[in-house]
Specification:
about 230 residues, TIM Barrel, 8-stranded parallel barrel, two-stranded antiparallel ribbon, about 30% helix, globular, Xyl_isomerase-like_sf
């Protein structure tokens, strides 16, 4: 007899463009080669190289600057959202050489104060919807001014954030209704009581299925291990 957990794992694992973020593979270190190797165990379809802290960005840029042979068909970079010290224009200048080399550079909207500074990233700039801990970027109305000012920017849709903001999923559906044509990829996980990413259970996936069903044509990036611990 197949258990609900096995069915759940298979449903996520069966997505043809599945990948994972290095954000949960770091283990306190900065060995990007090791993180990439570990990410390959999930899939070679997609990966997100996550420099979530500005302190991690130099190591990531040095790694990518060495022109590593990466097997992934879709490559995303998550720009720093924590420990930010650089002015936005300087951060964008560091990220700009990645344009044309990666498919997406994910940015949190609450870290974007000078929207004009982000224009050089063009279509590679990818704005992520936020959770309730953040002051903006949580709903379609809050994303609208950013995406209007940056008409080339794309959308990274975080289903866990959308479900936390509105458990009925109506707010998530509105984001996809208004900006689905700009959808670049999806972040998949669930959130614990602190708002931290955790693996999805069968119940989580059943809840998120209406949103995920609308995103089947783009990569899904796991932000927590595939299997619940």
């Amino acid at each position: 007899m197949v258990t609900s957990t096995t069915q759940h794992v298979s449903a996520l694992a069966a997505h043809p463009r599945l990948g994972c973020s290095t954000g949960f593979l770091r283990d306190g270190g900065d060995d990007w080669t090791d993180m990439v190797t570990r990410a390959r165990a999930t899939s070679t379809e997609a990966i997100e190289l996550a420099a979530l802290s500005e302190r991690e960005l130099p190591g990531l840029l040095a790694f990518l600057g060495s022109s590593p042979a990466l097997p992934f068909r879709f490559l995303s970079v998550h720009a720093p959202s924590k420990h930010r010290e650089l002015p936005e224009a300087e951060l964008v200048a560091l990220l700009e050489p990645l344009v044309g080399r990666v498919e997406a550079i994910v940015v949190h909207p609450d870290t974007m104060q000078d929207l004009g500074a982000w224009i050089p990233l063009g279509r590679t700039l990818t704005v992520e919807n936020m959770d309730l801990r953040k002051p903006t970027g949580r709903t379609a109305d809050e994303l609208a001014p950013i995406l209007a000012t940056l008409p080339q920017a794309q959308l990274c849709f975080d289903v866990a954030h959308a479900a936390q903001v509105d458990p009925t999923l109506a707010a998530g559906h509105e984001i996809l209704d208004r900006f689905g044509s700009r959808l670049r990829h999806v972040h998949v996980s669930a959130l614990d009581e602190r708002g931290k990413h955790r693996p999805t259970t069968a119940a989580d996936e059943a809840h998120l299925a209406p949103l995920l069903d609308r995103c089947r044509d783009v990569p899904w990036i796991l932000e927590a291990p595939l299997r619940p611990v």
